[in-house]
Amino acid sequence: MNLSPLSKLGLRHSTRHPVQSLLLVLGIALGVAMIVAIDLANRSASQAFALSTDSVVGKATHQITAAPASLPTDLYVRLRRELGLTDVAPTVTGLVALEQAGELPLQLLGVDPFAERPFRNYLGDGAGGVSSEALLSLLIEPDTVLVTQDLGQRYNL
Fold first, then answer.
1. Which residues pair with 91 in a beta bridge?
2. pLDDT (0 to 100) of residue 22
3. Does residue 33 belong to any structural domain of this protein?
């Protein structure tokens, strides 16, 4: 086998200093592993952010948000009736305190399930275990909310 003089020099150094050569290979492997791990973590975080954004924003292309004050209550009706916009849905968000949680603030998301259908499917397909009785009580009983199973079990709701 004919090796170039540079290859012979590198091979000679590697045989004379095997620990150094091993540390070199381990350092390169560790660097590659770190880059791959960081890339995987970034992709996972980006995907989680995209999924959570999609669950809140849905397929909406525009948003009307109230800055410091609230929006007029008739704005939704005007958008649907006067402007003829059929794919619009009101959403109300805010922090609420729950007595059972020791006044721990919880994020409240209020939606109109009928208007939300083109954008988000919070309730559909039985995914998440929402029974038809729960949906019916949500629609006909006042002061009814849906909470996650984890939250309900944690605070005995």
1. 111
2. 93
3. yes
